[in-house]
Amino acid sequence: MSLLHLLMVSLCFSRLVVLSVELKQYKEKENMSNGSVSLTVSDERKNFISYNLEVESNDKAQRRSNNSVYPNVVLFLVDDLGYGDLGISGHPTSRSPAIDRLASQSKIFTHFYVTSPVCSPSRASLLTGRYQVRSGIYPGALGADNPRGLPLNETTIAEILKKKGYRTLIVGKWHLGVGYEGEYLPAHHGFDDYLGVPYSHDMCPCYACFPDKPCEGGCSTSHVSCPLFSNTTIIEQPMQLQSLTGKLVDKAKQFLKDSAQDDAPFFLYMPFMHVHHPQFSSEEFSGKSARGIFGDALLELDHSIDTILQTLDTFDLADNTVVWFLSDNGPSLRRHEGGGCAGALRCGKGTAWEGGVRVPAFVRWPGHIGPSRTGELLSSLEVLPTIAALTGADTSGLKLDGFDASDFLLDKTSESPREYFAVYPMDPSQETGPHAVVYRHLKAHFFTIGDLLSDDQNYDEICTSRHLLTEHNPPLLYDLSVDPGERWNVANDTSFKISLIEMTAWRQAHMVDMTWMPSVTNDHDKYSEPCCTDHYCEPFPSCCDCPLK
Ligand SMILES: *[C@@H]1O[C@H](CO)[C@@H](O)[C@H](O)[C@H]1NC(C)=O
Ligand SMILES: *[C@@H]1O[C@H](CO)[C@@H](O)[C@H](O)[C@H]1NC(C)=O
Ligand SMILES: *[C@@H]1O[C@H](CO)[C@@H](O)[C@H](O)[C@H]1NC(C)=O
Ligand SMILES: *[C@@H]1O[C@H](CO)[C@@H](O)[C@H](O)[C@H]1NC(C)=O
Ligand SMILES: *[C@@H]1O[C@H](CO)[C@@H](O)[C@H](O)[C@H]1NC(C)=O
Ligand SMILES: *[C@@H]1O[C@H](CO)[C@@H](O)[C@H](O)[C@H]1NC(C)=O
Ligand SMILES: [Ca+2]
Fold first, then answer.
1. Which of 119, 204, 215, 532 is catalytic?
2. The whole model's pTM is what?
């Protein structure tokens, strides 16, 4: 072991100690040692909400008392929406008035990461608060013919909330596995009910995306038609894209109405099929935007979100509901004008550059979270621990990579609990570990690799698949506060020397601490594809189609 290596390792461990001390102090701020915390918050409609969190003396699990009000949770996840795609992002022809309005009522995170530049691993981390390599959701995403999924011993947001007595519903794109017998569907990960398509709608033949307009190519024709699941049963195969969004929204509306009438706390997870390739919309939005098919799809997405937010208002739920909005990864640049836009950020989907993993994100809780905009570092790993803290859900016994950012959201502190973030590539390996590390406003790339999803015709060669895996020693270093587009390598700037050593050390400590589950995404078996007739029917795959039920 070289002297420098020793220095780095010792540095990193002292850094870890500092981090854990910070975390302890942070928790103590909550007066947990006393056994109970009582917060009083004002509220526009109800004047007064008393919110009690009782802490169990043995395991410190928090429990609510009977007459307390604790928040419902709505989590909007958009598929492949780029940093530059929304009206609030300054896109010249995008129209997203409802999302923009929601953002204006929210705490907006301008420096927010997902853990992977593609769907399945990003979703695994969002729902578990853990890096995807711990659950085996790598490399890439789960295909239609993959018999496996998110391991059943992983604990999702839905599971911890269900234990707290929340009703849980997912509508939309699951993408964490189906299984031969549906054993990886949401029903087995804490969701009471599900309506949606379990993977991307280009993993099956494209039939009709818009009224009187064909789908833009590039859909898989060798797999079964896309199934629409109601919980664990296929109710439509092929699923009809043009009527899908309305069905999903109606299901969510009914859920909100029922929950309001029964006065039951709820968790609504809405991972939209929009704005993943191929773009689609119903008649109402087709041809209505100034941004072509992508803009039409965005309009339909915006309208869906508007409807859900209006439903919260109708049933007087808005003030007691935490609403999160984020995208699962950057834009699919290979789709050209049919794909999203990373705005000022470099490259897009499939890469560890900012365009691949830095996403639009914000959270609203009227009367509790003040509308504001912050450049503090945060990630999707924080969603589970933060929701747990806000709802008093129990996370004891979980090995989490995310931080509880509730104090930060509630403006009790101006600093995010996260200082470092590890950026994994689309196809991570234990040898190369995270390709990049973010430390506050600095980002160091230890390895780079381009990807087809960021477009092989991209004018920036480093984004393309022709840019093969390259190690950088010293790493490429970018100061994101002045260079969010990662253009100017400042590795030689001596003022960043210490930070670079610390980032290198942190990365090594992170790699030592990480556990890698064997990959589950590489298995293929056509007989595991969801089929509403019989898996072994002929001629496959068309024999799987069912009449509408
Ligand atoms: C924690 O206790 C201190 C001292 O009693 C008090 O000043 C502070 O407001 C308490 N914090 C919370 C969150 O209750
Ligand atoms: C500690 O708890 C007791 C009762 O459980 C309460 O009377 C007291 O005010 C609490 N102290 C603090 C600092 O919160
Ligand atoms: C909560 O409700 C249960 C059952 O209704 C009751 O036994 C218990 O005393 C209540 N607890 C509080 C703190 O009111
Ligand atoms: C789930 O089970 C696998 C295989 O037994 C194990 O390696 C992994 O650590 C478990 N994960 C969790 C979160 O308990
Ligand atoms: C969904 O399926 C699961 C597993 O079969 C079942 O336990 C649950 O009751 C179903 N939910 C609904 C709403 O039917
Ligand atoms: C940093 O310095 C080395 C050694 O002088 C030089 O080879 C390299 O090109 C410099 N890198 C940048 C980004 O300026
Ligand atoms: Ca995606």
1. 119
2. 0.84
